[in-house]
Amino acid sequence: MTKKTWSDRFEGTLHPAITLFNASIGFDIELIEHDLNGSIAHGKMLAKTGIISPGEAEQLVQGLEQIRQEYRAGNFNPGVDQEDVHFAVERRLTELVGDVGKKLHTARSRNDQVGTDVRLYLRAQIDDIRQRLRDFQAVLLQLAETNVETLIPGYTHLQRAQPVSLAHHLLAYFQMAQRDWQRLGEIRARTNISPLGSGALAGTTFPIDRHYSAELLGFEGIYANSLDGVSDRDFAIEFLNAASLIMVHLSRLSEEMILWASQEFSFISLTDSCATGSSIMPQKKNPDVPELIRGKAGRVMGHLQGMLVLMKGLPLAYNKDLQEDKEALFDAVKTVQVSLEAMTILLDEGIVFRQERLAEAVAEDFSNATDVADYLAAKGVPFREAYNLVGKVVKTSLAAGKLLKDLTMEEWQALHPAFEDDIYQAITPQQVVAARNSYGGTGFDQVNLAIANAKAELGLS
Ligand code: ARG
């Protein structure tokens, strides 16, 4: 077993099971490229401030770049006795460049180092996830554009309420994704602050230049307080919150798709590229993809809870508990990434809206009842009076097995003399939708406007 970096202070050796228990190399190797970038910036800063010579910094940078090549070629695989990625890199660096490698950790602690790495990692992942949100939005928009005139029942309490344009329904998810995209942008700004130079907790005795290393790493600012710099994981919690919201949105859409694919709704059919069969029931075609997304949402929310609880009792400054932030964060990042990708594929090629079933669905119920009341209200009948009247018509029609469109002109007139021939036109599903032309409503003019705005947002117009 290799000698521990800190072992000179110790008499005995670490129990093998504790070595394993303590080590984070099994997962924090994920940070390696960011760790190398952080170290390169730190090395350059040490030279700029005269703490090491320019030649020494040059050697450090070359050695660190060589480790990058080795890692990318699959030739850097530190074992568990290396403890973590930071020690593993430092040890390999010293093997490669000799004693000068031991100078890299001057004026630095693993505490500000790991804080730097995690922020650099998350910044890159936020950029990736925001791009995936854009792809998801683009496919929603595409589907919306071809389905402005497709109508679908709108629900409240999962009871038929008023029909809406399918595009309007899809664009609701576009808006949720838009907020997710914005939220991640805001969190990116708070993630993009450098703790490097906070040292172990109290700063350092060396004349470092924190602004310079921050600038080299593309950070927008530096932590004002070293204790806060090494202890803060707010940005990770904020990210997990945003990640949870993305998953909530994907999960709601998933739930709708699962319902829509059921025989009871039959609003969509699943194509073979995104559905699976049953091992026993030959007739089954299962919506595994949305079900999995719905399931994975729970996992991401769990990570948010986990991180909140992890932090709540920690005294300042660094505590080893903080090593537990990584697996939660990495898993949440990956889960959001694969879920967004899967949902985008599902929308793009995994589902087909069953136009004839949707047309049938919006014509076969009383979801035009509000429009009858609105019709009377527009003719001067107080709305509540009109509402009560229509309530009675619905009751008698239901009993007679009729829909509102089946009532004769005499029946309408008997109900209220204000009814005229145009009532039939006013209660067609098309008209019911078209009439809701208030800003943000489902009226076709509004939906077309929303599509134009969405296109502009994605830079597509
Ligand atoms: N592996 C550690 C982590 O992930 C790195 C920081 C360790 N610092 C320390 N003082 N033990 O948090």
From TrEMBL:
<keyword id="KW-0028">Amino-acid biosynthesis</keyword>
<dbReference type="InterPro" id="IPR024083">
    <property type="entry name" value="Fumarase/histidase_N"/>
</dbReference>
<keyword id="KW-0456">Lyase</keyword>
<protein>
    <recommendedName>
        <fullName>Argininosuccinate lyase</fullName>
        <ecNumber>4.3.2.1</ecNumber>
    </recommendedName>
</protein>
<dbReference type="GO" id="GO:0004056">
    <property type="term" value="F:argininosuccinate lyase activity"/>
</dbReference>
<feature type="domain" description="Fumarate lyase N-terminal">
    <location>
        <begin position="9"/>
        <end position="302"/>
    </location>
</feature>
<dbReference type="InterPro" id="IPR029419">
    <property type="entry name" value="Arg_succ_lyase_C"/>
</dbReference>
<keyword id="KW-0963">Cytoplasm</keyword>
<feature type="domain" description="Argininosuccinate lyase C-terminal">
    <location>
        <begin position="366"/>
        <end position="434"/>
    </location>
</feature>
<comment type="pathway">
    <text>Amino-acid biosynthesis; L-arginine biosynthesis; L-arginine from L-ornithine and carbamoyl phosphate: step 3/3.</text>
</comment>
<comment type="similarity">
    <text>Belongs to the lyase 1 family. Argininosuccinate lyase subfamily.</text>
</comment>
<dbReference type="Pfam" id="PF00206">
    <property type="entry name" value="Lyase_1"/>
</dbReference>
<dbReference type="InterPro" id="IPR022761">
    <property type="entry name" value="Fumarate_lyase_N"/>
</dbReference>
<dbReference type="InterPro" id="IPR008948">
    <property type="entry name" value="L-Aspartase-like"/>
</dbReference>
<dbReference type="InterPro" id="IPR000362">
    <property type="entry name" value="Fumarate_lyase_fam"/>
</dbReference>
<dbReference type="Pfam" id="PF14698">
    <property type="entry name" value="ASL_C2"/>
</dbReference>
<keyword id="KW-0055">Arginine biosynthesis</keyword>
<dbReference type="InterPro" id="IPR020557">
    <property type="entry name" value="Fumarate_lyase_CS"/>
</dbReference>
<dbReference type="InterPro" id="IPR009049">
    <property type="entry name" value="Argininosuccinate_lyase"/>
</dbReference>
